[in-house]
Amino acid sequence: MTLTRNFKQTVIERIERDPEFAKALLDEAATLFLSGEPETARLILRDLVNATVGFEHLAALIDKPSKSLHRMLSPKGNPTMDNLAAIFDAVRAHLNVGIEAHTVELA
Questions:
Q1: How confident is the model at residue 12, as a pLDDT?
Q2: 3-state SS, residue 86
Q3: Which one of 53, 56, 74, 85 is CB 3.0 to 4.6 Å from 94, fit for a cystine?
Q4: Is residue 101 part of a domain?
Q5: Average pLDDT, integer, range 62-89
Q6: What is the pTM of this model?
Q7: How many whole angstroms separate alpha carbon 79 and alpha carbon 75?
Q8: Boundaries of domain holding 17
């Protein structure tokens, strides 16, 4: 009999014990949003919220119902830029990191 682990639970446990991994995921979520892959970015951001600040606390921080936040960060979610910025800011503050944007010239 093969034992398997839930992938999402494995990711959440790694986020909780490895701050650098959590920061890398936040960076990846931002990069994915800016690269036109919002569905994947929302899923990564949802895992980060679950493992760090939590949806209930996030709801209190940004004055939005937690159910709305769950929907925003679902695969078919459609958060406004204001809501997305607030979510990123709350996770960024919780992880105690800054976010910088860099441009790359394409040939």
A1: 80
A2: helix
A3: 53
A4: no
A5: 93
A6: 0.82
A7: 11
A8: 7-95
- Residue 68 within a domain: yes
Task: Name residue 39's amino acid.
Answer: E
Q: 42, 57, 60, 44: which is closest to 12 by C-alpha?
A: 44
The Cα 11–Cα 17 span in angstroms is 10
Helix 81-95, helix 55-62: angle, nearest 10 = 120
Q: How far apart are CA 99 and CA 107, in angstroms?
A: 26
Q: Name which of 77, 57, 74 is nearest 66 in CA terms.
A: 57
Would residue 62 count as lying in a domain? yes
Six token digits for residue 18: 């490895």
Averaged over 12-34, what is the pLDDT? 90
- pLDDT value for 62: 94
Total structural domains within the chain: 1
In b/e form, how buried is each residue of 17-49, taking b as 16+ CB within 10 angstroms?
Answer: eeeeebbebbeebbebbeeeebeebbbbbbbbb
| Residue 107, both tokens | 């040939």
